[in-house]
Amino acid sequence: MKPFMPPSAPFNAAEQTARFEQLALPHLHSAWQLARWLARNDAQAQEVVQEAWLRAWRYFGGFSGTVEDARAWLLAIVRNAFYDSLAAQRPNDVLDEEGSEAIDWTFNPEQLAERADAKRMLEAALRLLPVAYREMLVLRELAGCSYEEIANMTGLPPGTVMSRLARARAQLAQILQGTTR
Amino acid sequence: MNHDQVQARLSAMLDHALPAAEAAEITLHLATCAECQHAWAAQQALQTWIKRDAVQAVPAGLVQQLSQHLAQQTAAPVLIAAPAPATVSEKPTRTRPLWLWPGFAGLGGVLAGGLLTLLLLPRAPEAQTQIAQEVFASHIRALQAGHLSDVVSTDQHTVKPWFAGKLDFSPPVHDLAAEGFPLIGGRLDYLQQRPVAALVYRHQLHVINVFVWPASTTHQPAPRLLQQQGYQMVAWQQEGMNCWAVSDLNTPELQKFASLLQQH
């Protein structure tokens, strides 16, 4: 059972909710990016965020950090809400964490990024990544989390976070290269 | 640092996650190695691309939706569905709660929620709301204090006799382990100015408290479903007892649990 401190008296609820939203809303953008890239579609992502919001509100009494700290706190809750949901059904993605990270970087993403269908192409490639790699990229690039924050919220050693990110980028590059040939 | 080692660290370099000395070494290598230079440029381009194109605006209405959802969950206990399935053969999952009422959501807020309850359900007895508050508070206290069970047993034949001599009634105790709701124990609690039996069940990681005390009337109201602060409550009568189940389980599952108990 996770420890939590539910907000005390009901008559306080409105005030408590206002304080909670002040803390959490600035991070909704990041939370949304994470949920969207974890879940299969937007509808599922909305459910994940909604569940996370409710959990966050419930745990809020035990949270004592700043608005800045709240980002990693909230993202961790989003992540848990996703993995607890039926939507997760952990796919048996096999992660190749042993092989070399060195790949052929001779292609140029810069040119790809200028194509008219660049956004669609990138999204399709990201969807092909194992979710464990994809979430690393999202947490780092879109939510701006540090290695330490990612390590804390995923329970992975920082070294693994580092190597997963390297592999995620390498695999993404490989997929992009493959689709353009 | 050789060429391969440099390549392996470019990603960390991109994240400014390398010790200064290593970063300096890589910068030095980059100046002399065309292949690494190219890889470095490609990594940077990929990062820029991701930051630009993998982002999606928060859907319009999501903020409002979250806020309303929260308001509903945090309002004073709200009767969200009047007659829950009285016959147990019905599939409880079909009873989607009525809390998505348009209009209701739009008003939100504690006061609005409370007022509407009174307006829309003039017969919802005030006493129910008061019991709901007590049940809810009792559930939270038990969780906070880690004081769930005085008698810890998964055996209904241990739990039921334990209450003998402590209460002037014998609560119905049924183990629902086979159905995924194992009994984990019982304790004495105090509700409505009287000692009551609290039976503790578990479903996955969720704790369910069931409060039981003798009903003062033989009139059997339909099972009721209430919500407070993200917790769900179901109230019903069986075997001449008032029963209140409370948990953070979702509504259909808690209803299923209540139906299973009534089946016994």
UniProtKB/TrEMBL annotation, chain A:
<protein>
    <submittedName>
        <fullName>ECF RNA polymerase sigma factor SigH</fullName>
    </submittedName>
</protein>
<dbReference type="InterPro" id="IPR013325">
    <property type="entry name" value="RNA_pol_sigma_r2"/>
</dbReference>
<dbReference type="Pfam" id="PF08281">
    <property type="entry name" value="Sigma70_r4_2"/>
</dbReference>
<keyword id="KW-0804">Transcription</keyword>
<dbReference type="InterPro" id="IPR013249">
    <property type="entry name" value="RNA_pol_sigma70_r4_t2"/>
</dbReference>
<dbReference type="InterPro" id="IPR039425">
    <property type="entry name" value="RNA_pol_sigma-70-like"/>
</dbReference>
<comment type="similarity">
    <text>Belongs to the sigma-70 factor family. ECF subfamily.</text>
</comment>
<feature type="domain" description="RNA polymerase sigma factor 70 region 4 type 2">
    <location>
        <begin position="120"/>
        <end position="172"/>
    </location>
</feature>
<dbReference type="InterPro" id="IPR013324">
    <property type="entry name" value="RNA_pol_sigma_r3/r4-like"/>
</dbReference>
<keyword id="KW-0731">Sigma factor</keyword>
<dbReference type="InterPro" id="IPR036388">
    <property type="entry name" value="WH-like_DNA-bd_sf"/>
</dbReference>
<keyword id="KW-0805">Transcription regulation</keyword>
<feature type="domain" description="RNA polymerase sigma-70 region 2">
    <location>
        <begin position="27"/>
        <end position="90"/>
    </location>
</feature>
<dbReference type="GO" id="GO:0006352">
    <property type="term" value="P:DNA-templated transcription initiation"/>
</dbReference>
<dbReference type="InterPro" id="IPR007627">
    <property type="entry name" value="RNA_pol_sigma70_r2"/>
</dbReference>
<dbReference type="GO" id="GO:0016987">
    <property type="term" value="F:sigma factor activity"/>
</dbReference>
<dbReference type="InterPro" id="IPR014284">
    <property type="entry name" value="RNA_pol_sigma-70_dom"/>
</dbReference>
<dbReference type="GO" id="GO:0003677">
    <property type="term" value="F:DNA binding"/>
</dbReference>
<dbReference type="Pfam" id="PF04542">
    <property type="entry name" value="Sigma70_r2"/>
</dbReference>
Automatic annotation (TrEMBL), chain B:
<keyword id="KW-1133">Transmembrane helix</keyword>
<protein>
    <recommendedName>
        <fullName>Putative zinc-finger domain-containing protein</fullName>
    </recommendedName>
</protein>
<feature type="transmembrane region" description="Helical">
    <location>
        <begin position="99"/>
        <end position="121"/>
    </location>
</feature>
<dbReference type="InterPro" id="IPR027383">
    <property type="entry name" value="Znf_put"/>
</dbReference>
<feature type="domain" description="Putative zinc-finger">
    <location>
        <begin position="5"/>
        <end position="37"/>
    </location>
</feature>
<dbReference type="Pfam" id="PF13490">
    <property type="entry name" value="zf-HC2"/>
</dbReference>
<dbReference type="InterPro" id="IPR041916">
    <property type="entry name" value="Anti_sigma_zinc_sf"/>
</dbReference>
<keyword id="KW-0472">Membrane</keyword>
<keyword id="KW-0812">Transmembrane</keyword>
